[in-house]
Amino acid sequence: MAEKGVLIVVSGFSGAGKGTIVKRIVEENSNYALSISMTTREPREGEVEGKSYFFVSKERFEEAISNGELVEYANYVGNYYGTPRAYVDRMISQGRDVILEIEMQGAIQVKTRFPDAVLIFVTPPDAEELKRRLMSRGTEDEATVNKRMHRAFEESAFVDRYDYLLINDDLDRCVEELHMLIEASHHVPGCSAGLLKKINEQLQIYA
Ligand code: 5GP
User: Fold this and answer.
1) pLDDT tens for residues 26-80?
2) Is the C or the N end of the chain the one with fewer CB within 10 Å?
3) Nearest C-alpha to atom 12 of ligand 1 is from which residue?
4) Which of 69, 64, 63 is nearest to 86 (CA)?
5) Atom of ligand 1 at shortest distance to CA of 104?
6) Helix, strand, coil % over all residues of the chain, rounded to 5
7) Would the CB of 122 count as within 6 Å of ligand 1?
8) Helix or strand run (H / E) with residue 121
9) Residue 3 has pLDDT above 80, yes or no
10) In terms of Cα–Cα distance, which of 161, 21, 159, 171 is closest to 99?
């Protein structure tokens, strides 16, 4: 059993299906804690305050930035999005694995601040499928979909900054693979620093 939780960052092109994947893994493992982000974006139909996001004004978001309340934040297609720090710190110290579903600029900030964080990128098998998924969602107009496709093009150059790539052509398999990656990340030595220190001390008599 690891001593503290692992910070897991899941990103992917908008429309890659990461929201569905993350929802599934959180339902299937009660040790995972899903961070709820703060955003200045307008709520979409069916979204719930405090569950989907904390929907705030630009002024409140900028206050959160200057108070150091956010682990990371980014501007994505005209709106701010950020991860509240207090929840992440509390869950990690309780041994929970914290899942952040965030975009790329934020993911890279997390890796800089928390080098042990595990960065996972989700992609559909090709760009055509990405556009099809974005259009079929029906929540955005065509101009916004095109903006998101443009953003995907820009992001595609930086996917190698991630630790792992998941190809979402089969949802069940993708969910299974994500569980496995999280499980594996508990086995990095940094997660068991106390145990390693104890073994080192026990071995002192042979030095
Ligand atoms: P959407 O508007 O579709 O809900 O989210 C747009 C993008 O913002 C998605 O790629 C989503 O993962 C990302 N996002 C959501 N919350 C955060 C956050 O707290 N920080 C960052 N950097 N990106 C976020």
Assistant:
1) 999 999 999 999 999 999 999 999 999 999 999 999 999 999 999 999 998 899 9
2) C
3) 102
4) 69
5) 22
6) 50, 20, 30
7) no
8) strand 118-123
9) no
10) 21
